[in-house]
Each structure stands twice: as C-alpha cells, then as structure tokens.
Amino acid sequence: MILPLRLIPRVAAAAARLTPAASCAPTLLPPRRARLLPALAMAAAAYSAGSGVGRRLLFRQLFEAESSTYTYLLADVADPDKPAVLIDPVDRTVDRDLNLIKELGLKLVYAMNTHVHADHITGTGLLKAKLPGVKSVISKASGAKADHFVDHGDKIHFGNLFLEVRATPGHTAGCVTYVTGDADGQPSPRMAFTGDALLIRACGRTDFQGGSPDQLYESVHSQASMQNLIFTLPKDTLLYPAHDYKGFTVSTVEEEVAYNARLTKDKETFKGIMDNLNLRYPKMIDVAVPANLVCGIQDPPPKI
Ligand SMILES: [Fe+2]
Fold this sequence. Notes:
Layout lengths: L24 H4 L9 H10 L9 E8 L4 E8 L6 E5 L6 H10 L3 E6 L11 H7 L4 E5 L8 E3 L4 E4 L2 E7 L8 E5 L10 E5 L17 H9 L1 E2 L2 E2 L9 E4 L9 E2 H7 L7 H9 L9 H8 L12
Parallel strand pairs: 3-4, 4-5, 5-6, 10-13
Antiparallel strand pairs: 1-2, 2-3, 7-8, 8-9, 9-10, 11-12, 13-14
This protein binds fe (ii) ion.
Enzyme class: oxidoreductase
Protein name: persulfide dioxygenase
GO molecular function: metal ion binding; sulfur dioxygenase activity
C-alpha cells in the first residue's frame, strides 16, 4: 500500500546531496574519532546529521527520560513543504517536539508508532489534536486505532523520501521496523527504526502483548518475501531503537550481528534466555496499552 499523502515526486537530482553521513562526516569527526571502526565512525556521523545546506534528510533523535524512549524526527528539507514524520512520539514530550518542528519550519505529516507501547503513552493523539492534518500510522497487526494501517512491504512517503515497512513481530504481535528506502536519492547508509524488536546489544521482552521469542528471532534473522528484515539488511545500516537504558544512541547491523548479547545466540539458546528473564510486570502497562490502542487519548478534543 502506498499512503495517500504522497507528494508529487521530484526529479531526483538529490542523490548526491542527501545522505545523513557522507557530506558531514569529515567536518564532524575529530581526528581521533576518525580512527574508530568504520561502522562506529559512520554511526557517530549519522547521529550528528542535521539540516545542512544541500542535504535532503533532516534527522533528529529525541529522548524522553522517564521511559528512556527515543522519538525520531525525519523530514525532507529539499521539498518546499518540508514534510516530516515522527516515529514513536511520547505524550510527555509532544510540546517539545511540536516546538522543534515549528522552529525548523517543518510540516508534520505522519505520527507513527513501531508498536503498541507498554511503558509510555504515545503522543500521536495529542499531536493530531494540536496539529490538525497529522495522520497516525501503526501496523494493522497491532490491533490499535489509527488513520493509516501498514503491512510488511508498504512504503510511507514524505516528500521524495520514504520508509519501508518490515513486519518484525515477537516483542509484540504487531511490531514493525521502518527502514529508509533502497533507491537513488534515499539515505545512504540506510537507517532502520527497530522499535523494541532490536535494542542495542539487547532486544525487547517477549512475555506479553502476543510476544514470542521464536517469532522475534525469526524477525531479526530471517529474510521474508525477498525483503530484508534486520540482520539481513546491509551491514552498514544504522539501527535506531525505541529505547536505550545505558546511554547508547545508535548501532549498526554489523555491530549487532557481532555483539548483541541475545540475538547472536542460536535460536534455542535465545528462547531459553528470553523465557528466563524474570522481569517485573511493567508498571505502566495497564495504563499505557489501553491508551495506546486508541492513539494515546480516548477522545481528542478538536483543539488543545
Ligand atoms: Fe515495547
């Protein structure tokens, strides 16, 4: 499915000027950092990606401290409308995000979730109420309400950029990973927003919301319908999780294939690890899940 708000495609004169890493790396990396592993150096450069002149992608990684959630802002700033998407917004930080969007002159088109979160309330309902015209997006398999439902293989366009949808169930039954497009004019290296399917050196728990360690392992390792999931994406793909609890911000496929503490194991060992985590019942789950099934708020007023 191609979402209806796709803007008129422009001639892709932008291939050479879009990447989050390429044009800024030499100036952003100090000499000492330039000696890091290529993947680490690339990740550091991408994290610093901004809205420099001549670059198509504007990218911001935003943090909500109480639930250690990352929200991602992506925009096509080469398009006159500067259409933007927010991935995994949090209700507590909606005003911060809206202020940033306003300061940068962006037009928020989609507020998207990787899954129905259990540890915080999504900001999508508030965003829709405060910024009429914004559409919410979540997977059909999530069972949540939204304006647009996506399935594996769908594309979400904003300007001349797009995200591809990968079904990566296992943390919840409806988890998806959003991956930047594989085409001329799209970010290089690619960027994958993995939600809780893959965390840096870890992964989301699998003991509620239809979770399944077996399914999560397959979501990360397998190749489905000729479309790469996570570990089969190019090794320089930048991985951006929905959370981090240790201060990490970004990883790569190459790093996680080598160092992920759980997902580098064979499937049976992985299932044993996940079945014996003995985690506490999530303190927000009874509030967050019902709210997130309806965009975060039950009946948004027309304007807040
Ligand atoms: Fe989650």
